[in-house]
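Teaching note: in complex prediction, the entire set of molecules is handled at once rather than each chain in isolation. The prompt given to students was simply: 'Predict the structure of this complex.' The entities are:
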Amino acid sequence: MSRPFPIAGLVTALLAFAMVLPPALARPGDEPPAKAVEPAPPIAPALAARAADLRERARHSDLAWRLVSDLTTRIGPRLAGSPAEERARTLMAETLKRLGFVNVSVEEFPLPGWRRGEEAAAIISPAPQPLAVTALGGSVATPAGGITASVVRFADLAELEAAPANSLKGRIAFVDQRMFRAQDGSSYGQTVAIRVRSASIAAAKGAVAVLIRSVGTDSHRLPHTGMMRYADDAAKIPAAALANPDADQLARLLAIGDEPVVVQLTLTPKTGFLARSGNVVADIPGTDRAEEIVLLGAHLDSWDLGTGAIDDGAGVAIVTAAAKLVAEEGRPRRTLRVVLFGSEEVGLVGARAYLKAHEKEIARHVMVSEADFGADRVWRMSTGIGRRALPFAAALHHLLRPLGIGRGGNDSLGGSDVSVLARAGVPAIGLNQDGMRYFDLHHTADDTLDKIDPHQLAQSVAAWATTAFLVANSDADLRAGGLPARHGE
Ligand SMILES: [Zn+2]
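The expected output is the structure of the full assembly:
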């Protein structure tokens, strides 16, 4: 280390040492708080030992595997607002009761309906051939007989936005931005806007339909669906995703540039009807701090092309199994709640419904964490908690380290649905799963049970069980010192 070790850092380091916390807490250069902080109570050795036992038991449990197998086999795809999603609510409510959860309830809410129809696309000229395509969720249908029009390619959304007014009149816009593989899945957030926004931007310039390159990292002829949105002030035009190899093919043909490339697109989804969805809520009641709620979440709905095994049958299984394993240790001090959200895929609709229905008890939610990033192992723990609760998180992380889990930052919103609660002021712990192959399968027909590695699934269960056990059996106030800026936005 080239710089002198500052006294401030030394004090922090000694403090951390005294609390038997990992030294990651005491980086040289850390400013100590002006006043001495009361550290969150360190995890008592007896409790830490029980957590370690639970962790080892959980990593050898096959409960999550059996749950995700059951859900994806008995129900299959669970499109938001569909009868299958309703059957999944019934199945999981029964399963949760059988596992010993109490106060098991289904909290229904209305939802604008959407159902996939037929979908087909083909290059008509100059080189006739079929294209692998799928409608984006929310897309309107093409007119009877489909749309036949020449294609204009855009490298990304900015290029589409820069196209002159009326320049796409009567044409199909093709937005060809590629997503990249990353362990933290960050490229998804940087790319997904082409799926959500392209249709209305293209429609405003006169386009009759939009095709996007799939927001996914595989090179199979399986297009990735996912939600899109229409702006209020633009015409609604059909929107679909091409499989990555088909987007490559279309781009190459356009690059030759000898003559216009004409594509025919047919989509027959049904829109404009009212559907019902719902959340499944179940508790392991606490003892002396029962009014405080530790919430583990996942979402029960899936896209309709696969069986929703990695997105998010795995998450449903992980949090259900984790909570059940915690309950086997005896009732926790705080109430441990599992929420299986409905209609996540179509815009966190279930999460907003939960927030509304439970508004009065949000202040009593002490922590939220969601499993919604596939079935591969947790590689990092991140947090979104108060600064004075960071020593507790360091002690928790110490117990996750034997699972090969590193320490991330303090900027987590805890996962997809629960981000709604984090933004409403609830502390969050994010257990980040390995995203290297998640977006190969995400929202495709290939999202099926065989893609789940039971060993990695069990590692995730161990991470959530250990975390839930420690938070639910602790006095730690994870709001202490104030939540990071992203919370309570
Ligand atoms: Zn998901």
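Point out the following to students. Residues 117-268 form a domain with the Glucose Oxidase; domain 1 fold (CATH 3.50.30.30). The chain has 14 helices and 16 strands.
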